[in-house]
Task: structure prediction
Amino acid sequence: MNVTEELLDLQSLKGQTRGTDLFLSVCSAVDDMKLPWSKVSGIITDGTPAMAGEQSGLSTLICDKVSEEGGNAIKLHCRIHQQVLCAKHLKFDQVLKPVVKTINFIRSKALYHRQFQQFLLDIQAEYRDVVHHNNVGGLHCSDFSLSGGKLNNSWLKRDNRCKNCQILYGWQIWLFWFDITKHLSALNLSLQGQDAVVSQLYAHIKAFGTTLQLFQRHLSQSEPNTAHFPALHEVMDSFPQDNISAQTRRYATDISSLAVEFKEHFRDFAAVEKDMLLFSSPFSVDPDDAPHQLQLELIELQCDNERCSRHQQLSLVNFYRQLDKGRF
Result:
């Protein structure tokens, strides 16, 4: 089993860029190379209507074409793009707008940028730079938020004005955003890199969905558990006399809404979860649950102790590479 990447063709789009226009260009490229449509196994796009529309999006038209030619293709939405769209679901404009404005101000002139980089170096900040913000890459401001959150939490404990409840609540919102952004950034990094198998990437997504459910339960308690929100936990410990637990419990609703958004955005991956399980864990799948054309091969594979041992020792790609092509 070898995975390679090749550029098929470049096509100029003149006039409109509807799903049908994109599809005609793809058809032209595939037909020019005399490639069999039945061999197409899937398509991954972003979420624009021209790409992912249910009726006339490019992914739908390609899957229909493959079916007509006797094949079977799945359509998926880019996992990182999906995750960033989910992150945008948390609309903390009172936090995000000042951060975005500050980032773009710093990057507007080379002098400001160099001065800010030197400032981060002087205070030995974990993050050494900021990048431009854009609407899709909402997590791009996370580095600035993370370093800023640490500075603000330190200032918060020293400034007597923070005894004012409104100021305290404002900082609490900032620190909640700081903590949840850190979790989202960790997920974003786990979905990147080379040689990643889709089943492994989906495992990260499922794990984060379960993590959000845990966060929701913790923050819904009468005494919210902020163990996984260290910046928020620190401010609650610093001001025990202020009853900010009620405000903290409101964040459970935001977490619950984010969990629903994740489930909705990644439903296309969930639709092929059984296929991914068969691919990633063939020794744990009941042959009765496998497609009929694979059941006999699966039984033979599961009864081979040597191959079972190799499956545990090798990476998934290397395991499939060493299988006998004549038998599997």
Observations:
- The first strand starts at residue 42 and ends at 45.
